[in-house]
């Protein structure tokens, strides 16, 4: 059974490649290449610098969060380990490899639970920021394009409500067991001393880094001379960020291109420009992971060593 689940997970990752191949087949390689050639090497270098700056800012945020849990390490180590985690996270489904950072700072950890809690808190800042901007994107697209319609039938809504009631009933029924399992982790998660100032600083660093990361789409679109609403493209890319977390894609391949094509269709722009933009962003992603890949090669780890500890 375990072997079958691994095989399914393995093949699901390649669904994104099939989506990309289908899109390029429909649009055509020649048209896509013509769009890609609009971007110069200078634009690629600038885009890469923007991404590296964003990741540096996020590594500083991680150091602030870690210090609030009593985990102390220097700025260089924070940047080095963060880039390694970035590399590992983007070659694993759901960015789970990012938690490999724990193996590089294990000697600095008060406990494994504290280490896991610090990374979960770090990821939580990203997720909340991503969700917030994605929500703004839905409001913006609804206001401009009216893409969401009221359902004519409410069967699906009723089904979700029933499933929700069943879920909460199970939680309530076994609340004692859940509480005994979750309480030690909850205590560890809340053992930080972020406070108002550090929390605000972490939020500010998160927002700034996200603006840089997703603003790269706008920069490359400008370099390609694509006449698109910058606000719509910028907000739409946050939805792409959430979709890229699905375990059916590697580095967002296929899912990102398909989503960008849909966004470009709303603005009546050619699909080849959307695919070209996405492929250039993919190239920038690969290049931005190189420092982490090099550092990982110099000091490799086995991710199978990463596990939930039973310590308190």
Describe the protein's architecture and organization:
The protein is mainly α. It has helices spanning 2-12, 15-27, 29-36, 41-68, 75-89, 101-104, 112-145, 155-173, 175-189, 195-223, 230-243, 255-266, 271-288, 290-298. Mean pLDDT is 83; it is low at 1-7 and 308-312.
- Model regions low in confidence, pLDDT < 50 over at least 5 residues: 1-7, 308-312
Total strand segments: 0
Shape: globular
* Number of helices, counting only DSSP H or I runs of 4 residues or more: 14
Rg calc? 21 Å
Can you summarize the main beta sheet? none
Give the proportion of residues in helices: over 70%
> What is the assembly state of the chains in this entry?
single chain
* Residues in β-strands, percent: under 5%
Head-to-tail CA distance between termini: 32 Å
**Category by helix and strand content:** mainly alpha
Mean of all residue-level pLDDT scores: 83
Q: SSE order, as H and E? A: HHHHHHHHHHHHHH
What are the main properties of this structure?
mainly alpha, globular, disordered N terminus
Layout of secondary structure:
Layout: H1 2-12, H2 15-27, H3 29-36, H4 41-68, H5 75-89, H6 101-104, H7 112-145, H8 155-173, H9 175-189, H10 195-223, H11 230-243, H12 255-266, H13 271-288, H14 290-298
């Amino acid at each position: 059974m375990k072997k079958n689940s691994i095989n399914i997970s393995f093949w699901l990752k390649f669904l994104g490649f099939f989506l990309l191949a289908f899109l390029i087949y429909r649009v055509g390689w020649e048209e896509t290449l013509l769009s890609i050639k609009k971007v110069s090497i200078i634009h690629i270098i600038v885009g890469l610098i923007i991404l590296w700056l964003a990741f540096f800012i996020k590594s500083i945020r991680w150091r602030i969060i870690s210090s609030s849990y009593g985990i102390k390490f220097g700025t260089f180590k924070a940047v080095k380990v963060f880039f390694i985690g970035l590399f590992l996270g983007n070659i694993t489904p759901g960015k789970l490899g990012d938690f490999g950072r724990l193996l590089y700072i294990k000697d600095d950890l008060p406990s494994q639970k504290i280490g896991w809690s610090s990374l979960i808190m770090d990821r939580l800042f990203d997720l909340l920021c991503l969700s917030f901007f994605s929500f703004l994107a839905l409001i913006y697209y609804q206001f401009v394009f009216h893409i969401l319609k009221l359902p004519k039938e409410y069967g699906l809504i009723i089904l979700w409500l029933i499933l929700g009631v069943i879920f909460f009933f199970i939680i309530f029924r076994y609340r004692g067991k859940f509480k005994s399992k979750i309480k030690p982790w909850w205590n560890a998660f809340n053992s930080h001393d972020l406070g108002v100032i550090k929390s605000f600083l972490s939020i500010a660093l998160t927002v700034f880094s996200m603006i840089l990361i997703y603003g790269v789409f706008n920069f490359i679109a400008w370099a390609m001379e694509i006449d698109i609403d910058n606000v719509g493209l910028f907000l739409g890319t946050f939805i792409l960020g959430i979709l890229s977390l699905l375990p059916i894609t590697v580095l967002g391949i296929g899912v990102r291109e398909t989503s960008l094509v849909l966004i470009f269709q709303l603005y009546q722009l050619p699909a080849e420009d959307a695919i070209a933009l996405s492929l250039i962003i993919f190239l920038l992603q690969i290049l931005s992971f190189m420092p982490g890949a090099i550092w990982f090669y110099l000091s490799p780890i086995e991710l199978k060593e990463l596990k939930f500890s039973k310590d308190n």
